[in-house]
Amino acid sequence: MTKTTILAAATVLLLASFAGQASAAGAVGTAASRLADADCNVPSYRNSWQDDEVQGAVKLAVLVDAEGNVQESKVISSSGHVSLDKASQRASATCKFKAAAKDSSAAPVWAQVQYNWVLN
């Protein structure tokens, strides 16, 4: 019998634009530090996918609000399987990032989350 392993890793990609270079360096550093560690649920892998040996990597862009919650997600690199892409999007909605500092007026920022669907 084959064992299924699903790996989820969050990596940072900031897509927000900033007005000044001096403030941008601090803003990017602050956003990067709060997006560096995400707690994401592992998506369910259906038995029917295992029978078909469905595998692939899905890269998502997720919009993270000041509280660290995912507000929106978009597939930026598909696994080639709509079912894996959709399961990854559902799982990414549960990701929790570190909240911005209480005294900041942090704007939502984009980060990347990648799900690797691998049969072992």
TrEMBL record:
UniProt keyword terms in alphabetical order: Membrane, Signal, Transmembrane, Transmembrane helix
InterPro entries linked: TonB/TolA_C (IPR006260), TonB_C (IPR037682)
Signal peptide: 1-24
Protein origin, superkingdom: Bacteria
Keyword Ion transport among record annotations: no
Chief place of localization: membrane
Pfam families referenced in this protein's UniProt entry, alphabetically: TonB_C
Record bears the keyword Membrane: yes
Subcellular localization(s) per the UniProt record: Membrane
Protein topology in the membrane: Single-pass membrane protein
Residue ranges constituting the TonB C-terminal domain according to the UniProt record: 30-120
This protein's name: TonB family protein
UniProt organism field: Duganella aceris
